[in-house]
Amino acid sequence: MPRYFFHTRIGADTLTDEEGVELRDPDQAWRVARATIRASLEDEGSDPRLVAAILVVTDASGEIVLEFPFAEAIDEMDAPPEPGQETLH
Predict the structure, then answer these.
(1) What is the DSSP string of 14-80?
(2) Where is the DUF6894 domain (predicted)?
(3) Would you say residue 85 lies in a domain?
């Protein structure tokens, strides 16, 4: 399985993922990126720098697979659920 690395870029600073994680494909890497961002926002959501942060996912050769802006995940969290995706209480 390919290994993907999830680096967080905040302005000029980059928090580097040295270990990475083995995932099936880029689609699964995208889902893990979204979950990682959401968890970061729940834990550190009061840090205003996170709105401008980007999660950069690379493969084992260092090629960028995707860039996921934290702001995009925030927009998804604030959006109403898709029809059929609502939670029941």
Answers:
(1) EE--SS-EE-SSHHHHHHHHHHHHHHHHHHHTT-GGGGG-EEEEEETTS-EEEEEEHHHHHHHHHSP
(2) 3-71
(3) no
pTM: 0.79
Q: Is residue 52 part of a domain?
A: yes
**Residue span of the structural domain in which 24 resides:** 3-78
* 83 is a domain residue: no
Provide the terminal-to-terminal Cα distance of the chain, rounded to the nearest Å: 39
Domain count, the chain: 1
Could you give the CA distance from residue 7 to residue 27 in angstroms, rounded to a whole number? 17
Please report, in tens digits, the pLDDT of each residue of the chain (89 residues total). 999 999 999 999 999 999 999 999 999 999 999 999 998 888 876 678 888 999 999 999 999 999 999 988 876 655 455 565 554 44
